[in-house]
Write a structure and sequence with these properties.
206 residues; alpha/beta; Rossmann fold; six-stranded mixed β-sheet; isomerase; His_PPase_superfam; 2,3-bisphosphoglycerate-dependent phosphoglycerate mutase; His_Pase_superF_clade-1; gluconeogenesis
Length: 206
């Protein structure tokens, strides 16, 4: 049985382009982001991949990315599950702020700690540890059982919700996952065994 999982961060959003902390705010894709999502779909199609089920977050940029990928694959009617458990990390009081402005307000070092520590949340927001605390139970309850049943699954989500999954899948430490950069619109392909352990993984960069 071919237990296939593809994780894909959404294409560039309007707020990525403006260098703003986005979190649970809901901007859509830029023209570049639309092209990144279409290119992701073309890469998956070139490998002959099709899917049985898709998961995405409650946010427009991830849903739009998924729709564009599925259109390229000719799978626009694929069953799709949307859940805020897969949303981006909530940046709290930083949401909507330009990253340079945030450094002026709170200091370079403090903003770096909020962005790159595992368990220190920004004011009113979530750390990566907090994000993992909602993403991983959802994975265990919903996505993993579907994979174990032999379904081929596509997940379109966000940099930090996907980091939480990658940390578990690849058995990475907090230090290792914080160094892992996820490019917008680049699918990561996993093949898993019957227990959900990773047999292989590959970044499908263009």
């Amino acid at each position: 049985m071919d237990r296939l999982l593809v994780l894909c961060r959404h294409g560039e959003s309007e707020w990525n382009k403006l260098n703003l902390f986005t979190g649970w705010k809901d901007p859509d894709l830029t023209e570049k982001g639309v092209e990144e999502a279409k290119a992701a779909g073309r890469r998956l199609k070139a490998l002959g991949l099709t899917f049985d089920l898709a998961y995405t977050s409650a946010l427009t940029r991830a849903q739009h990315t998924l729709a564009l990928i599925l259109a390229e694959l000719g799978q626009t009617g694929l069953p799709e599950i949307r859940d805020q458990a897969l949303n981006e990390r909530d940046y709290g009081d930083l949401s909507g702020l330009n990253k340079d402005e945030a450094r002026v307000k709170w200091g370079e070092e403090q903003v770096h700690i909020w962005r790159r520590s595992y368990d220190v949340p920004p004011p009113g927001g979530e750390s990566l540890k907090d994000t993992a605390a909602r993403v991983l139970p959802y994975w265990d309850a919903h996505i993993l059982p579907d994979l174990k049943a032999g379904k081929r699954i596509l997940v379109a989500a966000h940099g930090n919700s996907l980091r939480a999954l990658i940390m578990k899948l690849e058995k990475l430490s907090p230090e290792q996952i914080l160094k892992r950069e996820l490019a917008t619109g680049v699918p990561i392909l996993y093949r898993l065994d019957a227990e959900g352990e990773v047999l292989s993984h590959e970044d499908l960069a263009g």
